[in-house]
């Protein structure tokens, strides 16, 4: 006899046992088809073997009349139905429907949201489960396109709506990836094209100026009266409409005071230097307090010094020649 292959046990400790029991039995039926197991009693025996010890303890507590098949019922189907009713009693139906109505799509994908709706709807004993799932899918999903699709097509099937939702989510993901790639490329080339972009700005591009009354941005969004300094009196000049920190009179008075108290540009008195040079070059100078600047050629075989034609030099020459004229 061939050995019985391994099959996972049923987890009867976690939540949503009824919905998970339905999925477990559905997979087990595929197993029966794959191994060509058609006998009713044999299917029941394999089920009891695979579910595990904890689930078998629960099954043993079910009254025998609930697992005994009636006419036109198989032992396997009756047994599966009895276990499902044990996990999902009738007095919990209204509460399960309340939980079903509270399910919303938060951050998970549409596939996880749809799976939760199906599992919760399986415990609500709806007469038309697909219609209820469609209604909750439209109400609780995050996509506006899916909502619009469901509201515009009242006769849409659950299969068509969930496929549209999957397609919409996939396209949105692809667009986000493409947008991210575009942002990366823009951030890479932005420093290179910054100057060119500034030069290509249209001439009517709104330029920002600085308000001379409040030192803020100009023009003000709500007109001149929205200037913070419009109702303010300057504490320096006494005029209204500007802050003291930007008062023109205060700034001008400060500049004049700085010019008055400004130290000399150099420590050497240029006037004294010019007088010494003048005395050395012209010993017959009139000794006037008016000084003139001379350009004196230095060494290195340069041409002789050049005297500038000034009124002082001409007057000195005139007085030096006067005694000769008197003697003559």
| Oligomeric state of this protein | single chain
Largest sheet strand order: 1-2
How many strand segments? Answer: 2
- Rough outline: rod-shaped
* Binned strand content: under 5%
The number of domains: 4
The biggest beta sheet is recorded as: 2 strands, antiparallel
The run of helices and strands is: HHHHHHHHHHEEHHH
**Intertermini distance:** 165 Å
Please give a structural write-up.
This protein has 13 helices and two strands, in the order ααααααααααββααα. With 328 residues, it is an all-alpha fold. It has four domains: 1-88, no CATH class; 93-165, Non-ribosomal Peptide Synthetase Peptidyl Carrier Protein, Chain A; 222-260, no CATH class; 270-313, no CATH class. Strands 1-2 form a two-stranded antiparallel ribbon.
Summarize the structure.
It comes from Acanthosepion pharaonis (Pharaoh cuttlefish). Residues 260-271 have a biased composition (Low complexity). By secondary structure, the chain is mainly α.
